[in-house]
Amino acid sequence: MEIGLDAGHNFSQVKCEIKESVDPASNPTHKMTSDEYFERIAPSQDRWDIVFIDGLHHAEQVSRDIKNSLKHLTENGSIVLHDCNPVTELHQRVPRASGHWNGDVWKAVADYRSVGGRCLVVNTDEGLGWIHHSLPSPKPFEVEYTYQALEKNRQLYLGLVDSVEETPDVTE
Length: 172
Prior knowledge:
- By secondary structure, the chain is α/β, with parallel strands linked by helices.
- The chain has a domain at 47-166.
- The protein is built from 5 helices and 7 strands.
- The chain has a 7-stranded mixed beta sheet with strand order 2-1-3-4-6-5-7.
């Protein structure tokens, strides 16, 4: 399942038996918001092995997409999030203030991790978040929602790793 299709470049490259997408714009499988999808359609759908969240880059929406996606994962399923690690303060402003934009996705990741959510961010492609039950659960912490706090606490807030080789093995 892909939330936020945009032009469909990622979606078109996925080779699997069953794939779906949701986006209120572009040309997805389900032309609606992810909130509408999870309310109206997802309860009757099969569970997903992987959900890619790359929709509205506002922390509140990303948090809802995480919460809703977790309810629809298979036992060993994963959630992948895009744009979790903005490199400048301008890139994370909401509303959008520049052509290149991550939004404040990092805040949703920090929120999830701050209550023990099993998530890390690989430091590639503007930060790829990964949520999986096998990842370590961080101890609870307080989040300060400023870019300056992110700069000081990237490791804590994002569980930042430099490569996938640093991620735990989830094949067990």
